[in-house]
Structures are given as structure tokens and as C-alpha cells.
Amino acid sequence: MEEKTSRVYKWLKGGKAYPFKVDLFLTNKCNLNCVFCNYPKKKPVKELDKKTIMSIAEESGRLGVKIIGILGGEPFTRKDVVIEFMAEIKKNGISGSIVTNGMLIDTEDIKKIIGMKWDLIRFSLDGSNSSIHDSLRGYKGSFDRVINVINHFNKLKEEFHANFPTIEINTVLCKKNLEDIENIIRLAHSLDIKRIYFLPMIEFVKGTNHLKIKKDDAKLVLNEIEKAEKIANTLGVSSNLDKIKQDYVFIKSNAIDA
Predict the structure, then answer these.
(1) Entry pTM
(2) Position 9 in a domain
(3) CATH number of residue 240's parent domain
(4) Residue 28 pLDDT > 60, yes or no?
(5) Sign of torsion, CA 183 184 190 194?
């Protein structure tokens, strides 16, 4: 925080202040068809070529960037570059994070990610069971696949006596999984995951209004969050539920990316 503040102060004084963090959307392609997501409906865009992507890691290191976040679409649809880019980020002394649905990660990928001491990987998980998760992700078997990948990470980390990467969960919060929050927290604990980041659904796609949490749902949401927080505190799983509750983000989410 101190370094972030000093960079902003330097910039306000007219000096050159390079970014603390860089987020790179590696692709807008995705192998799933999530009901609340507009990426599958978007026209493909021209992607950065491999040489340009690799140069971003080198230049970011030279400029003193501390964190690079890799986003998508689904980053692992770019198997031509994603693992090499992650390794290059680490070679340049930068902390790295990536968000993925986990579907395209294989054993060799896991070994390489552990071996490079990648910092953080967040798996998208929208329910505590296949019925909820698969229906929201638009792909039968996606729940079992991501759980298997997380378990494989944990197994290989133990075999290699490795602490990296830290594994977390991203959950898109909507009416379909609202009453499943407690179970998602219990599932995270069973997977040895210490943090969940909840993102209230943004209504990007027509026909998803029935999934959007609305003002009339506030009482139910607050009740579910209160129950979930008690379970989370007991199990040692942290989250941003308190922030969501305090700011009523769950009914304001459509304005976030307006």
C-alpha cells in the first residue's frame, strides 16, 4: 500500500509513475457458455501475437510493475502462449495471478505452474454441486472437471513440498446459487482453499434478468450472507461477503461496469 501511495503521489506531482499492477486480457474466447456471460456472444477480436505478449512481461519488469493479472475469456484457450507467458512473468520478478475455469488445464500444465512458483490461481466455481455449477456454466461435467483439477494441484503441491500457487475461488453470485453460499464455503474448506471472492452477477446478457439479485431480495441476501459468514469464520475461510453486505453491492452490480 505504501508503494502504491508513493506512485500516485509522484504522478500527481507531475513525475513518471509506472503502474503497480497490469491486467492483460489474453483472449475473449472461451470454451464454456456461461448463461450470464457475454463473451460467447461477442465477435472474435484480433489477439496479440506471442512475441508481443512475451514482451509485456519483460517491459513490465523493467518498469517496476509488481503484479500481472491474466484474464479472459478463458486464458487457457491460448495454450500457444499462456504457460510461457506465466513463466516469463516470474522470470522478471513479478507476482502473477490468473483466473480460469480449469477445464483445459492438464497434468503437465500443473507441474509447470507449480515449478515456476506461480503466485495465485483463481478457479471459477459457481456452486457446491454439479447441478448448480454446470447449469450456470453451460457445460455438463464442468463441476467435476474443476474439482479434479484443484485436487490434482493439491496432490502435486504436497508431492513437491510446494507452497505455490495459492488457490482461490471466484463465484458469480446470483439467485441460482444464493442459498448455496454456505455449501460453497464448506466445499472450499474441504479443498483446502482459504479464500473465496464473490462477484454479484452483472446483467450483460438478455434473458438473464431472472438470475439477477434485485432490491426485493435484500432481506434474503443479508440472511444468507450472515449464515455464510458464521460458517466461514468457523472453518477459517475468508471472503469479501462483508463488503458485499455493507455496500449492498448485490443490487448495484449493473452499475459497476456501466
Answers:
(1) 0.91
(2) no
(3) 3.20.20.70
(4) yes
(5) negative
